[in-house]
Amino acid sequence: MNHIVLMGRLTRDPELRQTQSGIPVASFTLAVDRRFASKSQDQQRPTDFIDIVAWRQQAEFVSKYFTKGQMCAVQGTLQIRDWQDREGNKRRSAEVVADAIYFTGSKKESGGNGGFAPSFDDRDAPPIDAGYNTDPVGASDFAELDDDDGELPF
User: Fold this and answer.
1) Residue 46 confidence (pLDDT)
2) DSSP 8-state assignment for residue 98
3) Which residues is 49 bridged to in the sheet?
4) Around Cβ 102, how many Cβ atoms within 10 Å?
5) What's the mean pLDDT when you consider all of the chain?
6) What's the number of CA atoms in the CB half-sphere (13 Å) around residue 140?
7) Alpha helical stretches, state H, the chain
8) With contact defined as beta carbons under 8 Å apart, do 95 and 52 qualify?
9) Which residues does 36 contact at the CB level (< 8 Å), separation at least 6?
């Protein structure tokens, strides 16, 4: 099973690009503290810097709503890529391909939007050319239900 969940801060703004065929792809790096590692002499936990890649609507979502320093959680899979550098040397890179990205910061960190912004899970997204409205759901799209009988089903 290849499943990864990370939580950390963005080290830079997400970089949105497009492939030659026009598919959006965003990349960014998360600074993730090691949970069980002992603190160093300066009382800081060791930090790992993990490269994240998001595709299609996920890429557009992360580039629109996330900025450097913001806390977020990423759910995805680990991908190992072999490639050659400009000198012809063989290289290997590890990155996480994001399936879902979630806001985890406080209201203060979110820039005054009340901490509300949708998470986006690419597994549930319609294909790009399906013609569906894939705009994030806003708070105004919810309706309050009447509590007629006062009895809860649980």
Assistant:
1) 87
2) E
3) 31
4) 16
5) 78
6) 0
7) 56-65
8) yes
9) none
